[in-house]
Amino acid sequence: MSHQPTSCHLVLDHNYPAGCLEVPWPSSVRLSRLRHLDARLTRDFEDWQVILALHQRGDVDAFVTQDAAMLSLPTEMVVLAKCGLCLIVTKDTGHSPLRALGLLMAGLETAVRRITNERPTVLVLSTSVKSESADSRINGIADRSGVAPPELIERELSKVGDLSVPVLT
């Protein structure tokens, strides 16, 4: 049976916007800023020490940061794994606090669900955009429909008629 806390406590790194706690977050989420918990942790400490200090508090479920470089630091990952704390990284935000906050807001429900159900060590929220051609999508639809792409195209074009006829008149 999975542990289901009534509240998930996330601590935001020092580089998130000052007004971020004013956002109407879900009632099951408690957010704190690192500098409000202990301002000393925002300077002169290694990331692994911040992770350990948050774990030692006993009331923190996850640390949220824009620092994706942390994912490649062996000491930080070992301490994280041993502590069982979750690290949420808002990646690809170009060091923009506003973009990072938006990404956290967009991924929050999924992140909290994973923290409370699976207790993962690392969650990476990314702004990557997947691009593909319409032809590629058509090929996939045709394949799933069991028809050749030209047959699918012909069938669908017969439904819409002449594409040069104005839609709005």
Model description:
With 169 residues, the chain is of the alpha/beta class. It has six helices and five strands; from the N terminus they run ββααβαβαβαα. The chain has helices at residues 34-38, 47-57, 74-83, 97-118, 134-145, 149-160, and strands at residues 8-12, 29-33, 62-65, 86-91, 122-126.
Short structural summary:
Helices cover about 45% and strands about 15% of the residues.
Question: SSE layout and pairings?
Answer:
Blueprint: E1 8-12, E2 29-33, H1 34-38, H2 47-57, E3 62-65, H3 74-83, E4 86-91, H4 97-118, E5 122-126, H5 134-145, H6 149-160
Parallel strand pairs: 1-2, 1-3, 3-4, 4-5
Helix pairs in contact: 2-3, 5-6
Coarse morphology: elongated
Mean pLDDT metric: 86
Broad structural category: alpha/beta
Q: What's the order of the H and E elements?
A: EEHHEHEHEHH
Stretches with pLDDT under 50, minimum 5 residues: 1-5
Largest sheet: 5 strands, parallel
CATH class of the largest domain: Alpha Beta
> Could you give the distance between the termini?
61 Å
Count of discrete domains: 2
CATH fold category name of the largest domain: Rossmann fold
